[in-house]
Amino acid sequence: MSEPAIEADGLTKRYGEVTALDALDLTVPRGELFGFLGPNGAGKSTTINILTGQLVPDEGTARVAGVDPVAEPVRSRERVGILPENGRPPSFLTVREYFDFVAEARDLTDIEGRVERWADRLAFESKLDTLCTDLSQGERQKTLITQAFLHEPEVVFIDEPLTNLDPIIQERAKRFFRSYADDGNTVFLSTHFIATAQEVCTRVGIVNRGRLLDDLDPRELGGETLLDRFFATVDADSVAVDPADPAALAGEE
Ligand SMILES: Nc1ncnc2c1ncn2[C@@H]1O[C@H](COP(=O)(O)OP(=O)(O)OP(=O)(O)O)[C@@H](O)[C@H]1O
């Protein structure tokens, strides 16, 4: 069997008193559109930052696209695409200049065809020569999604990619993410949109308090919704936080 696209073993990260990741284990096989779900502060961004070579864990190991992002962050970042949450393209470049800049950094030549395809897919052809500072929020998001996929990486991390996109473009983007994974690449989608994860993801992980609590195929949920499963999983874990509270342990209000 081929090596998984993403493997994390015992990842631990502390910020002072706060344990953001608590020996997190995670395996994502190639070809999955993997939804990474969890409440605010669960450790999603911290996990992504470690897996993309932007943050060093206190303990644990990781491999992404065959590279150790902790030992070889630069080589690792070459292999992956990243759509950060709340990112902003540089204000002083036009959209096209920004893509040229990304292409230069990624050692890509002849990106015109790719840029045109993305502009068509996400409907921003008319904005290619606009300064990034003059883009709407949704147009900025379209620009950032495009840069994440421009070098056609085998693993892409996308953090809340649908934010600020209109419903038509959301549908197109979702279809694209799924087809990109169906082509054998791996898409790691961090989101609070649980219905979207149920709709498009081929696998989903639920994280809380820095640990992976569940890892499932949402198509095998039967009658249960992913939202029900999410609430039940996180609630059960939160009850476990306070064993001194007998009412909570009994599941009472
Ligand atoms: N630079 C930092 N310094 C101190 N604490 C941090 C730092 N970054 C994250 N944390 C803390 O680590 C925990 C995990 O944060 P993280 O950003 O990974 O969560 P998240 O799941 O991405 O949350 P959200 O859904 O709100 O974006 C939180 O308690 C957060 O306050």
UniProtKB/TrEMBL annotation:
InterPro entries: AAA+_ATPase, ABC_transporter-like_ATP-bd, ABC_transporter_ATP-binding, P-loop_NTPase. GO terms for molecular function: ATP binding. Residues 6-234 form the ABC transporter domain. Keywords: ATP-binding, Nucleotide-binding, Transport. PROSITE patterns: ABC_TRANSPORTER_2. Belongs to the ABC transporter superfamily. PANTHER family: ABC TRANSPORTER ATP-BINDING PROTEIN (PTHR42711), ABC TRANSPORTER ATP-BINDING PROTEIN NATA (PTHR42711:SF5). This is ABC transporter ATP-binding protein. It comes from Halosegnis marinus.
